[in-house]
Structures are given as structure tokens and as C-alpha cells.
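Ticket closed. Logging final result for FA complementation group I.
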Amino acid sequence: TSNMRADIMEKIVSLSDGERIPELQQYLSSLTDDQLTTVVTNSALKGKDIGAMVKSIFKGNHVPLSLSHEGASRRLLLYQHCIPLCESGDLQTEVASDIIGLLMLETHNLPGPSLAQLASLFVDAIKLGKMGSGKSLELFPTVLTALAATEALSYGKGELSGEEYKKQLINSLCSSRWDPQCVIHLTTMFRDVPLAPEELQFLVEKVLRMFLKLDLQEIPPLVYQLLLLAAKGCKKQVLEGIISYFKEQDLRQKEEQKDGETMDVEVQSIPQDQLRHVEGTAILHIVFAVRLDQELGREFLKSVKGCQGELCPFSIALLLSVARIQRYEEQLFDFLKGTITKGFKDEHLQQGSKFLQDLLPQRCSLAQMILDTVKNSVFGWDHVTQGLVQLGFILMDAFGPKAGPFGKTATEGANATAKTPTQQACRLGGHILLEGFKMHEPIRGEILEQVLNRLVTKTASPVTHFIDLLSDIVVSAPMILLESSSKVTETFDHLSYLPLATVQGLLKAVQPLLKVSMSMKDALILVLRKAMFSSQLDGRKSAVTGFLLLLKNFRVLGSMASSQASQAISSSQVQVDVHSRYNSAANEAFCLEILSSLRRCLGQQADVRLMLYEGFHDVLRRNSQLASSIMQTLLSQVRRYYEPEQDLLPPVKLELCIGAQGDQVFLQEPLAHLLSCTVHCLLWYQGMRRSARPNAGGSDNDDDDEEEGGFQDELQSILESITRRMIKCELEDFELDKSAEFSLSSVGVKNSIYAVLVMGVYEVLIEYNFTKANYSKSLFEELLELFSRYNKLSEILKEKSGKGKSSKSPRSLLSMGFVSTLLTALFRDSAQSREEALLVLRSSGDFLRYAVNVALQKITQLEETGHTDGPDGQNTDKTFHHLCDITSVLMWRYTNIPCAVEDAGKKEKRCSVSLLCLEGLLRIFSTGQQRYPARVAQLLSEGSDHGPGNASVTEKIAFYIRQFQRALFTQLSGGEEDFSSKEAQILVNILSVLSRQLEPSSQQFVQMITWTVKICKETSFEDIAFSKGLLSLLFSLHVLYKSPVSLLWELCQDIHSQLGDIDQDLEVEKQSHFAIVNMKTASPTTLLVLSQVGKVLDEVDWLITKKKGQLVPDRLSSGDATQAAGQQDPVEKALTLQLGTLLTALNELVQTALPSGVCTNTLLGELSRTYTILTTLVKYPQVCVCPLKSLIPLYFQVKLSGSHLTPQCYSFITYVQAKLLRETKAIPNLIYSIEQYEKYLITLSKKSKVNLMQYMKLSTSRDFRINAATLEAALQEHDNSQQEPEQSQEPKKKRKKQ
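Final structure:
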């Protein structure tokens, strides 16, 4: 009964307290086991005096070990009873802790067998999953430690030392099944157990396997405990285990998401947000551990660097978080930067070679993973986002566009695609920042600030990539940007000190914000007004740029909606229209005020005026209400330079257009541009009035006609008068005749400026009068008069400047739209009514050539900068449509009137129109590919009339390719005297541009390559430039189809048979695979072949490096090795074939009597590289798992190189030395490479016990002059010959085995 229990308890405690030990012992031995355990249980449940009770029982059973077996078993009983009691969960926590604490103190007093029993109790409880709360596990390490210290324990039939016994226990524990609930408790517990390294490894493997059995929530605490456990060792294993677990989970989650989307079922075993939060916490734990434990940090770095780019979104996030620790920051960002570029380079290499694509699978791109990390970091990973921002800017800073020579920058239009690995890396940086900006509130301010800072501070290098990023940010989140508008307005303060290109980009990027933020607009206007009076020319230009932009974008009520008005930002993003309608009166006042500011600029430098003339037309189109104001401004400017006296010639006052300072003469008024701007604005204005007329009934708008008609009539009569008088003018009227000088003296410079102005005026008049002529024959005759004046002047300029520098005609003032109209009229217009008038223009060959030449100039400008001069030049869509029209015309003209027909009657030296058209087409196709990669199909389909209508892109391209193939075939089927090399080269270039658009797997591509091979085999023209072009085309196609080594071998045989052998007495058997290789073209072909050999060696080198990288981790798993021994690895097999064929090809070239110079030097260089790669291969089996299987392919290489190539190399060296007068470094380099190779072969022969040297004649005799460069080689030689004697005996013993 309970009273009785209480009595027993009181008695035990009082005896113990009174230190009456013998009585206590006696009393305790009088109690049965049951009585004792019940008393303990009761007192524990009540939580009263349990500590005293347990202490007393220990006291009473504490006799010298030799005497009492009973005392020991009593103590063991106490343990066996208390442990499950503490696990039961019935006790209060502190009570359980007290009991365990007391038991711990007494553990070392237990005898060995008791300890063994106790340990087994724990192991069994764990196996059965009875360690629910894990409370009593704290005792287990103490038991194990005590156990390890005992001398000997009986085990089975014999006995083990305590240490061994502990090992057995741990082994059995780690091999058994663990209840997922107690994994964390066990991991925690093992931290206190002394473990040998192999035990620790066994344990860590077990815990990592258990990850998959746990709930997600339990992972972070387990990671934490594992990291603490890693303090003992196995750090790399722990880190890699954690990373690979999360990598696996991410992949599963991705798969599930995909399946969910395709099957419309929610199959989420891993909820995404939960997974991300768990990952975030795990990352924090790891970073915390790395901060505290430098060794762990070092292991982390090692593991990351050793993973051969096998990163995943989780490990990237982890990297970026660890990078916030200063110690590791630089290393980790350098590593990431390197890995990213290496990834892009590898992709680049693989995309360019079918051989590599077939061998290695395409891996998930690193860029995609980093962007995944950005996405994942939305789930509260603030510790990662900081690193992402840093990474984004590091990439953009390191790989952005660089300043070219003389501070010029390569202009990349906004729509150029990233092609090179560096451009891709920079683009990736931009993507990271843009996505980060969209998703993360906290980092927005910082990203914006850093971008703006760079725009202001990086004035020496181009900042286009930062402007693009800013513009993307504005478009994606205009409202967010308004919150930090102060940062943008701060940047405005620097406008007048920034390079003009930066200002234009910046203003264009923030333009959508100006419509919504009044304060920003006002701040900008203040800055621009100040800039108008800047002492720097660039500052004033910036002001003009800014004002024109504002004029374009603030619509005045009643302005005709032009297709351009709705640009960049849709009203759903920003409610612009509301305030612009509401405020249009204010807008009008504002615009007129700006215009009056701009009028001041008309008195400034030519550059500033030029910007105004370039910009006015665009302003008009967007803001038609400003027409009268702008037209009046232009009219008053034209009046300044117009000669009103109708009888005076010339009709313009040229002397007012130039200024002088000291003996410097410079242009003051770009008169031709002024006229051009006036003409375009007038034509547009008249067009607009016409389209508005039909519905303007009645006479209610007569009055504003009066006011506006005034300038319209006056301008028209001025233009007519100028035209009339310019036709009458002779060159003498401008003081420009045949005798005029165009030197660099002040007179010469003045004459050059006059000439350019006059030519420009003629061009503007040609465009105006063509538009006004409405196909009247007499007006077209006048137009030709204008042209002949223009042409005469142009000829004089060419002649005068042609002596010194290449004559580049000044930029034409015709607009792109007009060029397209004019070409269509000249070449395609078949209307009966217009035929007679057009015949006038068509009969002038010079005029036709001029028209096509201007088109060429415009297309080149478009290709280089992404836009053209003149009205609408910045408007991508319009420009693209003009380009399509021009393509169609040029294509029609070239195919219908071939050059041969056109040239037949003429003996002039000039380029024929058809050839110019062909050149235009080449430019157009490459421009299309660079500037409009997504719209190439549209360009082609609009460019051809009889092409397939609704065909696929590939079919359209194939249609064009057939047209040009036919043309080239016609060229080649004539005799060599009719062959036009220039035309053939352009055709080959066009074919190579077009074939790049074909999908290499398509049948059209295969047809293209078959055709090219056929042409190369059958054409024997001795034209070096053409054969180079054709072979380059062949190579560029071939690498995308299959490896080019066999092709190279055939070409090498051809070259050998054409140029003859280095041993003149030898007759080379005549071989001709490719007729294109003949005496004249053989040496240029050699250079092409060698550059291809270089590329193949690059690929082989890359593969070997990849292979070496894979070998290191594989050495651990020797299981794979035995399985692979039977079959050869596909990569090794491919390497063998590549190198084998290449060695055979080089063997042909080495025997060829090549002309000395570039050819021989390049060949010597490629040979050294080949030997270096062979040397790597010979070292490579030593890394391999089982050397003998790798020797099979090697054997083949060694035999080839030894019996053929090396002896030939030495004869070739002698041949080159005989022909060369000056020493070349290439020779000693080659000899050194050969001998390195032989040295490693000897080492390998000894290691593998296979004699690889039987094919090698070790080079001992040489007849070349010893000099410093070759001395090293000779010494090496000496070392090699020391090893020779033992070598030469080896073959006899080995021969039988083979």
C-alpha cells in the first residue's frame, strides 16, 4: 500500500542521511526487487525526494566490488528501471533530468559486465524505437566511454577489449533501422561519444541516409546537429551530403510541378514554400557553422571547387550566403565568375561542334540555375539576395562592353543579341538584377542606386548595359520607381557633365516616368535649362536631346494620334492619359516654352543645330499641334541663307554657312540638313492636311489656313526657286571647279565644306522633286539635271581625295523611306502610265548605281549602329519594313538581270548595278541576322514574291539558298575568263550567312553541305580568294554536321600531291579529292586546314580536361571500374579516332614541300601542340582506374606517332632549316614537345610493363646547328639516351607476350 511505500522510502532516506551505511545496506538487501522499483517509481511520479532516494540506494549498494555481486546487480537494476521510466514521458522534465544526472555520476563505478548489459539495453531500445523523448540518451555516451575504458569483456566464446566492444556496438547500431523520431536525438548524442575516424564516417553516412525518411520540418535541426558533429571530422562528407539532399528535393519538386501543370492534378508531396523555408534555415545553419569553424569553411571551398561545375540552385544560394563572410567573399565570387564564363564557353564550344554534341549530353545551364536561385530567394532568403545583387553587378562590371581604341565604343543597338560568352555573362548579370528588383522590396533601392551611380561615374567606358537594365526596370515596375524618384532626380544634376550617349540613353529610359511624375519632369527641365548655357558643347547637346525628348512625349490636345504615340508603356501600367488630357493646355504652354528655348540653339555650333534638325521631324509626327510653331522656326532659319533675288546664282548664301577663327575654317550652319529637315516637315505636314481635309466640311477653318498656309506657300516657292536656280548653276558659281584645291589649307578646307554642302543640297532637292514630280517626264528630266550636277562634284571630290586616302563619299541625305521608294520605282514599277517618265531615270547608269550605293550606305549604317540617319531612322519597325522592300527589289533585279547580261555590252571598269544589288543583299542578310534575329523569316518572306507563301522559316531560307546556288553554279560553269571572282565571293558569303539560319538537323542543311562538297570537288579555278571563301563555308557547315578530321586528311593528301615532297627525288602519287586544291591555291588552303586542325586540337584538349575532371571523384568508386573494363568508354573511343586521323593528316603535311614562312611556322606550331596533347594522354592513364584498358587506344596513337610522325618531323625540321635564313622559335619548341612525349612514354612503359617504345626510334643523331635555343633540347636528349640501354633490351623479352 501507499503508506507502506512511503515508509520504506522514508526509512531509506533517513538511514542514508544519518550516514548509517551498514544498516542501510542490510535494510536494502531485505527488500525485494519489486518493492524497490515500485518505491522508486512512486517517488519519481510524485517528484518528491527522488534525488535523495536514488543517492541513498547507490550509497547502500556501494561495497568493494569483490564482495558484493548482489550490490552490483541492484545498481544495474536501478539503471534498467530508471531509463524506461524517464523515456515513458510520465515524469516531469526536471525530475527526469535529475535522475539521469545522478545515474551519469555513478556510471563509472559499474563493473564491465553491467556496463555491457546496460549498453545492449540502449541499443535494443533504439532498434525498437523506444527512445521516444531521447532524454535518457544523454546517459549513453557516458556508458560507452566507461565501457571503452574497461580491460576485457566476454563476448561470444572469447573476450574483447572494451574499445573493441564499443566498436561492435556502434557498428551494430548504425547498421540497424532507426526510428525517424530519434534521428536527431541520436545525432546529438553521438557528439559526446569518442569516435574513431572510420566509425564517424559510418555514422555520418547513416544519418545522411536518414534525411530522406524525415519530415521536412525536422531537417534544419538535424542539419544543425550534423554540423556540430562535423567538428570531429568528415566535414566535406557532411556538406556534400546536405547539398545533394536538397538538390534531389529541388529536382523532385520541379518534376512534380511539371506533372501538375500537364495533368492538372496537384501531386505535391513537397510543398514549394515549405521546402524553400527549410532550405533557407539550413543555409543559415551552415553559414553560422562556417563563421565559427574555419576548417569547415576551407572544406566547403574545396568541395565547391572540386565539384566540376556541378552546382545546383541550392548550392549557389549557399555560396552566395557564405560569400557574405569577408574571409571567403573574394574567393567565392571569383569562383562563381569563373564558373559562369567557363559554363558559357563550354556551351559555346559544344554548340559549334556536332562531334562534341554527340559525345556529351547538354547539361542544365548554370545561368538557368542562378535565375532559379533568384526565384527561390523570394521565400525570405534575405541572406542570399545581398549576394545576388553583388554577383549581378560583378558580372556586369567585368563583362560589360569595353571602350575601343581612341575611346570609341562598339555601338551595339538595343536589339543586338548576346553572342560571345562574355556578352552572355554580362546579360546574365542584368537578368539577375532585373528579376531581383521585381521580386525583392528590400534590395530595390540599392540596385537602383548602384545602376545610377555607374551611369554617373563610369564616363570612360560604355554604359549601354546599365542603361538597358534601367530601362527594363522602368518598364517592369514604373510605380515602384516613383517611390525612389529622388534618386533619379539626383542623377539629373550630373546631366551636363555626362557623355552625350549616356544622357540620351538615360532620358529615354526614364521617359515613361516623366509622364507620371510632375516633380521629376520639373526637376529635369530646370537641369536642362541650366545645361543650355553650359560652357561644354556636350552639355548643350544634352539639353537639346532632353528638350526634344520632352516635346515628343507631351502631347498637345488635338494632335493627330500617330502610330508612334503609344510606345513603351501601356496605359494599364501607368495611367498617363488621364493627366495628359486634363493637362493639355498646360502641355501646350510647356511645349511652346521649350520651343522658344530651342530656338536659341539655332545660333550655336553646327553640332547643336544638327541635333535639332535631326529631331524636329519626329517631334512633329508625335505632336502635330506644334506644326505651325516648328514650321515658322524653320522658315525663318531658311530665309537667312536664301538669296531672294531671283536672278542671282547660286540661290543660297554659302559664305554665311562657315565660320573662321584664326586660320581655322569650320562649318557653322549645316545647310543641307536644315533644308532636309524643312522638306521632310513640309511633306509630312501637307500629307497630314490632305488626310484631314475630306471631313473638314464648310469654311470654318479658313482663318487658320491663312496663318498656316502662309508658311506653306512661301516654303514651296523658296524650294521651287532653289531647284530652278541650282540646275542653272555651274561649279564655278560655288568657286568649285576642276582646278579648286581640297588640301588641308584653309582654302582647301573651305572648298571641302562647300562641296559637301552643295552635294547635300542637291540630294535634298532630288528627294523633294521626285516626290512632287508625280511621274511627269519633264520634271524627271529636271531631276536628272540636278543629279548630273551632284555627280560632277562627287567625281571631282573622289578624284582629288582619291590620291591619298580611300574616298569615302559623305553620308547621303536621302531618307531610308525615299531610297526604298526610288529603288522600287527604278527596278520594279511596271505601270504603263509611268513607263515613259521612268525611262528617263532608268536610262542613266550612273543614277541607278547611285541609288543602289545609297541603299548600301544606309544598310551598312543600320548594321553598325542599329538605326539610320534622317526621319524615322530611330524607328525600328519602319526601318525594318523599308529593309524588307529594299530586299525584294534588289533580289528581283539581281535574279532578272544577271551581271553577265548587263556587262556584256560595256567595257567600263565600274561595278555593275547587279553586282551592287548582290552586295546589298549580303549586307541585308547579315544585318537581319544581327539586328532582327527573331524576324529573319519575315524579312525573307516579304523580300521574295515567288517564294513559298506560307512555308516554314527553313523552307524560305532554302528557297533563297537555291537561288544563290544557281547563280554561283552559272558563274562556275562558264570558262575561267568569264569568271567574276568578286561576284562569286559575295555569293559564297551570302550562302554562308543564310546557311547559319538552317537547323543543322534539317534535310535542307544536309542538302546544302552535299552541294558545297560537290562544288569543292569539281571546281578547279585558280582563284585564291574564292577558294578560301568556299572552303571556309565548307568547314563551317561540316563541323555542325560531323567531325571534320577525315575531310582534313583528304585535303592534306591533295596538298601533298600538288606541292610535291620535301625529298625531291620522291614522286608523290597524284591524288585529287578536291579539284579546288591546285598549285596556286594549295598554300592558302594549307593555312585554312591548319586553323581547322587547331580547332580539332582545342576540342580534344577540352575533352581530355573534362575527362580528367571526372576521373578524380570516380577513383572512390572502384565498382564502376571493373564493369567498364570490358567496354571502351565512348569518349576515349572518339578521342582515339580524332587523334588517329589527325596524326595521319599531319603526317601528309610534314612530308609536303610547303613554301617557307607562315605555312611552315603554323605547321610547326600545330605539331608541337599535337605532341603536347599526346603527352597529356600518356600521363592520363596514370590517373585512370585500370591502366591496361586505356592503353589499347593509346597503343594505336603511339604506334602512329612513333613509326610515322616523329621521324618525318625531324626531316621536316631539316627541310625548314635549310630554307630559312632566320631562326624560328617554333623548331626548338617542337623538339622539346617531342622529347617530353618520349620521356613520359618511357615512364609509362615501366609502370604498365607494356613496351610502348618499340616503335620509337629515340632521336640520337641530329645534324642541326647548336645554339642557345636548342641547347636545352640537346641536354634533354642526353638524359634520354642515358635511359636507352635498358630500353633496347626490353623488346626481346616482351615480344612473345604481345
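The mean pLDDT is 81. No further action required.
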